[in-house]
Amino acid sequence: MNAFFISAVQQYGYLALWLIIFVAAAGAPISGSLLLFAAGAFAAFGDLNIIILFPVALSAAVMGDNLTYFIGRRVGIPLLAWFERQKRFRWISPQALERARIYFRRRTSLAIFLTRFLIVALGGPINLLAGLEQYPYPNFLFWDVSGQILGAIISLGLGYIFAASWEEAAGLFGAFSGFFLAFLTAVILSFVLVRMIRQRRRTRTAEAEAKDILSPIESIVKQDTGPLPISD
Amino acid sequence: MNERAKLGILCVLLLLAMGFTIVKVVDTFGAMRNLQVQYSDARSGDVSTVRPWMTTHAISLIYRVPEDYVNSSLDVTSTPVHLHETLYEIASHKRQPVDRVIHTVQRAILTYRKGHRRISMPTRTHLSARKPLSPGRTVR
C-alpha cells in the first residue's frame, strides 16, 4: 500500500501528496507521516522541492484535521445521545462517561498538539472528540497548526537529511513515538494508582479516627440505656 | 465494582504498560542501530541498500552510476514519463517481482563498477547469490 502511494507521489508530485496527506489527516488508515519522510528524501534527490513541500504538507494536514473536527461537531452530539440510549453500552455508566469527558476537556489542547507529530495514530479520533466536545475552534486551529508545523518539519527534515535511509529514520521515529505513548500510559496509570492508594489510606484513617471518637460515646450510650425508670 | 478489584485491575494495567514500555525501549534501540548500519552502508554505496521506492535517478545519485546506464540495464527508456518511475512501478509494468528488478539493478551497478575501477565502492562478498541483496524491509 505504501509503495503505491510513494509511487503516486513520484509520478504526480505535489497534488498526489496533498490528496494523500489530506485523506490521512482526515482519519484514513494511511501513514501520512511515512509519506512525508519519503517526500523529504525525494526532495534530497532533487525530484521535489522542500520549500514547496512544506506548505503543501501543512495545508493538507490542517484541512484534513479540520474536516474531522467539523464532522465531530456536526455528528458528534446526536451520536453521543444515541450511545447513551443504547442498552448494550449500559456497562459504561453515565457518571464514568462524564468523568472521561471532563478529563478530556482539561487536556484537549495538549492532546491535539501531541497527536500532530508524536502520537500521529490518535490524530483522527482526537479531532473527532474535540469537535464532539465543542472545543473552541480558534484554539483547535492554533494547536493543530502548531503541531502540524512541528510534524512537517520533523518528517520532511529527517527524510531530507537521511535521504537513502529515510525508511529506517521513519522506523526509528515510529519506535520512539511508540515508546513515548507506552511511557505516558505508564506514568498516568502510576499517578492514578498512587492517588487511589492515598485516598484509600485517608478513608481508612478517617474511619479509625471516627471509631476512636465514637467508641466512648457508644459505651456511655450503652450504659445509659438500662430499663427506663417507671414513674408511679 | 469494589475498591479492591479496581486496584487490582489498575495494577495489572500498570504492569502491562511497563512491559510495553520496556519492549518499546528495546525497539527504539534496535531501530537506532538499524538506521546507523543502513545509513553508513548507503553512504558507502553498498548495493544491498537498493530499495523498491528508488527511482533510476535516485539510484544514479546514491551509487554514482549514470542514469542512462541504469535505465538501459532495466530496459527503460529515458523519457520524462519514465523519469519518476520507482523500481516498484517498473516491476509492476514488467510483471516481474520487485526483488528481481532490484537484483538486476544491483548486478548492473556492480558490473559498472568493475568496468570503472576508479570509483571505489565497497561491495559485499555474497553478491553472486541469486537472491536479491536487500535483506532489510521493503516498502509494500
Description:
The complex is a heterodimer of chains A (232) and B (140). By secondary structure, chain A is mainly α. Chain A contains eight helices and no strands. Chain A has helices at residues 2-25, 32-44, 50-85, 94-106, 108-117, 123-132, 137-162, 166-224. In chain B, 61% of the residues lie in helices and 0% in strands. Chain B is built from six helices and no strands. The radius of gyration of chain B is 22 Å and the shape is elongated. Classes of the chains: A mainly alpha (232), B mainly alpha (140). The A-B interface holds A 1-4, 6-7, 10-11, 38, 42, 45-47, 162-165, 167-169, 171-172, 174-176, 178-179, 181-183, 185-186, 189-190, 192-193, 196-197, 200 and B 3, 6-7, 10-11, 13-14, 17-18, 20-21, 23-25, 27-28, 30-32, 34-35, 38-39, 42-43, 49, 51-55, 57-58, 61-62, 84-86, 88-89, 136-140.
Order of helices and strands of chain B: HHHHHH
C-alpha termini separation of chain B: 47 Å
> Which regions of chain B contain 5 or more consecutive residues with pLDDT less than 50?
122-140
Kindly state the number of beta strands of chain B: 0
Count up the helices of chain B: 6
How would you spell out the order of helices and strands of chain A? HHHHHHHH
Tell me the β content of chain B: under 5%
How many DSSP H or I helices of chain A?
8
Oligomer: heterodimer
| Biggest sheet statistics of chain B | none
Question: Could you give a short description of this structure?
Answer:
The complex is a heterodimer of chains A (232) and B (140). With 232 residues, chain A is an all-alpha fold. Chain A has eight helices and no strands.
Write the layout of secondary structure elements.
The complex is a heterodimer of chains A (232) and B (140).
Chain A lengths: L1 H24 L6 H13 L5 H36 L8 H13 L1 H10 L5 H10 L4 H26 L3 H59 L8
Chain B lengths: L2 H41 L12 H8 L3 H7 L6 H4 L3 H8 L3 H18 L25
Helix pairs in contact in B: 5-6
